[in-house]
Structure formats: C-alpha cells, structure tokens
Design goal:
355 residues; alpha/beta; seven-stranded mixed beta sheet; three-stranded antiparallel beta sheet; 14 strands; globular; binds pyridoxal-5'-phosphate
C-alpha cells in the first residue's frame, strides 16, 4: 500500500539524538536553542520559541496577545480542530468565516462582516501547505487593529510574494510526525515582537524567568532536547523534502484526469503538506475503496466543518457556510510525500484514472 504519509528519518537524526543522550541534558537545553535559531532563520523572523506541539503554539500565541474571556477570534472552519480549540482554551470564542473553493483557505472578502467590537484577532490557517491570501488579511487587521495569528502547522517554508509563512503575524507551527518536518511531537511560535516572544517563553515554563520565581500563570509546554535533536536534523532537510513534494505535486497535476486538481495562485509557493483533489462526479467512499484496491491509500482532511463537531454543537454553534459544506463532501488527499517513487506516482495516476 502506498501510504498517505511517511516520516523520513536517517543517520542525521540518530547522530543528534545520540549526542543528546550522551550529554545527559534531555529536557529543554542547547538543542532546543539551536532549533529555535535555525527555525527563526528559516522563517525570516527575529524570534522562534519552541513549545510542545502545534496546539500549544496556537494556545500560547493567543495568550501572549492577551486574548481571553469575552474576546472573539476569526478563523476557518475547514481545518484540523486544534485551530479553533486553541481559541476555546483561552476562554475566547472562535468566529468561523467561509473559505474559497480554489484555495481551501479563509475568504478575505467575508472577514470584515464577521468583525464585532469583541474581535481581537484573525487566525488564517495555511491549509495543506498553501498560505492564505495574506495581503488583504493584513490590510483588514491593520484597519481594525486586530492581531494576526497564522496557523502555519501545515506550511513550513511556504511563501506568499516572497515572504515566508509565520512572518506576517505571529506564526504557529507543528512538528508532529506527519508534518513536512517533524520532531515527533513539537511546535514553534515565530514573531518579530520581543514582547510576544518573551510572553511565550514565560507561558511555556510556569510563568518563570528565574527558576522558582513565577510572574504569571503558565504551563509546562516545553520541548525536550531529544525532540529538538530530531527537529534539527529535519529542518536541515526541509528544503529538499519540500522540493520533492513540489515535484510530485507537479507530476500529479499534469497527469491526473477526471478530478479537480489543486491550483497555486500566482506569487505563492505551495509546500504540499497534502495534495488534495475534489471529486464532483464520483462517490467519495467508493473512490476511497477503489483506490485502496489498487494499492493507494488516501484520506479525507477534513470530513466535518469544525462548527459541526459535537464539541461546537454543544456550545451552541449552528452555522452553514456553503463553500465549507460543499468541499468537506468532495475533498480527497492523495499521497505526495517525499518517499514516493516514480512508479508509486504512476500507480496513483492509473488508480485515479479508474475512478
Ligand atoms: C497539526 C495541526 C495543528 C496541531 O498541531 P499538533 O502539533 O498536532 O498539536 C494545528 N493546526 C493545523 C492546521 C494542523 O494541521
């Protein structure tokens, strides 16, 4: 079976993990610091602060911006649930705005009508490795004095008019096992604002700058040096991983028939965390079975709009956003990861042609 994702580890990871174990410093230490420096350089930001996951990155970024009870954050309903849940964790309320069918990202034209006196931030999600349309989003945020918190969990090193994901607002990344680069579990917050960086550092370690002196209520959301060692080996291979994903996606775009293939807007680079087609004339469950029978694994990201998840229904959400409703029924992600061989790609093309 051609898997939908496949983490890629080699000697580079082993060497660095071994170094950590032999040093005896396994909690947050020098490897975390090194990873933060290389991650900030990757994004072109002043600061990168490592945390325990993408979810905790989002949670702490929101808290660092002072978001909490009574506030509203505008975001996409077509995402992994962590995006919106991080808003709930702070006591604030997510406000869902529909997406564009061509990019799967939040539609900037619909943001302004969702702004209320309680709105404090916009959280665009760079879904599948393609950045949201940041120029109008930044312009709206500036006009209404809102923070921008980018959910870049799927978009390591993606660009928008030459600027990297995570460098527009406060960037939040995941280093989970299946992401374009991984530390097994882990996360990163990027910013050019020294105050935000300092707040995230405090919040990840019990609100403490000096050990056993606690200034604010914080958490234990630290990354370990063992995880950072894996992340360091991975960040040094990210460009190569992304280039292979881009080559694979280009091949699929050229050869797939009968399905709507993903497009990249001018001025953007897609890093293809997922390669996602839309099925308009075929039943999706049947398609998944047919692909499986031909040895191709596929996956639905995401089958249910966030506002329709039980967690949200229980909180009184009752929305119907037409584009989100339509694409949740149509999308299907195919393998695009760097471990695919050219014969795997041929198998995928043939399997899709048979749908
Ligand atoms: C993976 C992911 C997250 C959460 O990251 P974790 O590291 O799994 O906590 C948040 N948002 C999106 C869009 C993701 O894909």
């Amino acid at each position: 079976m051609i898997a939908i994702s496949k983490p890629q580890f080699g000697d580079e990871e082993l060497v660095l993990v071994r170094e950590v174990l032999e040093s005896g410093v396994v909690a947050q230490g020098p490897k975390v610091k090194q990873l933060e420096e290389e991650f900030a350089a990757l994004c072109g930001t002043q600061y990168a602060v490592a945390v325990s996951s993408g979810t905790t990155a989002l949670h702490l970024a929101l808290l660092a911006h002072g978001i909490g009870q009574g506030d509203e954050v505008i975001t996409s309903p077509f995402t992994f649930i962590a995006s919106a849940n991080s808003v709930l964790f702070t006591g604030a309320t997510p406000r869902f705005v529909d997406i564009r069918p061509d990019t799967f990202n939040i539609d900037p034209a619909l943001i302004e009508e969702a702004i209320t006196p309680r709105t404090k931030a916009i959280m665009p999600v760079h879904l599948y490795g393609l950045m949201a349309d940041m120029d109008p989003i930044m312009e709206i945020a500036e006009r209404h004095n809102l923070a921008v918190i980018e959910d870049a969990a799927q978009a390591h090193a993606a660009t928008y008019h030459g600027r990297k994901a995570g460098s527009f607002g406060t960037g939040c990344f995941s280093l989970y096992a299946t992401k374009n680069m991984t530390s097994a579990e882990g996360g990163m917050v990027t910013t050019n604002d020294p105050h935000i960086a300092e707040q995230v550092r405090l919040l990840r370690a019990h609100g403490s700058k000096v050990r056993y002196y606690h200034d604010i209520l914080g958490y234990n959301f630290r990354l370990t040096d063992l995880h950072a060692a894996v992340g360091l080996a991975q960040i040094r291979k990210l460009e190569q991983f992304n280039a292979i994903r881009q080559r694979n996606a280009e091949f699929l775009n050229q050869h797939l028939k009968n399905v709507i293939t993903p497009q990249v807007p001018a001025g953007q680079t897609h890093v293809w965390h997922q390669y996602t087609i839309r099925l308009t004339h075929t039943d999706r469950d049947t398609a998944i079975e047919k692909l499986k029978a031909k040895g191709v694994d596929s996956a639905v990201f995401y089958p249910v709009p966030v506002y329709r998840q039980k967690v949200y229904l229980d909180r009184g959400y009752d929305q119907f956003l037409p584009v989100t409703e339509e694409v949740t029924k149509q999308v299907l992600s195919l393998p695009v990861h760097p471990a695919l061989s050219s014969s795997d790609l041929e198998v995928i093309v043939d399997a899709v042609a048979s749908l």
